[in-house]
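Lay summary. Proteins are chains of building blocks that fold into shapes, and those shapes determine what they do. In this project we predict the shape from the chain. Here is one chain we studied, written as its sequence of building blocks.
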Amino acid sequence: MSSMDMVITAIYEEVPEEEGGGYVAYAEELPGAISEGDTLEEARDNLRDAIEILLEANRELAGRTQRTKNVTRERIVVSLGSKGRPA
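And here is the predicted shape, written in a compact code that computers can read:
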């Protein structure tokens, strides 16, 4: 199976020290891809891992549900412009 690169918007929110400190990280385009870290670099690495795990789990789940069905699978390209996003 070949790999492909995917560009995803990562959001990092700094947590105030009085709330424990560190960073919360999530992927704007992938609900459920969320992680945290004590440093920005750790949060970044953890989010990358969370995204990979989420995508693999989704592929596995889709594969299980498709075994008894006739399905068509294809790649699509989606442009993510500024349409509909706040300035």
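What the prediction tells us: The chain has a mean pLDDT of 86.
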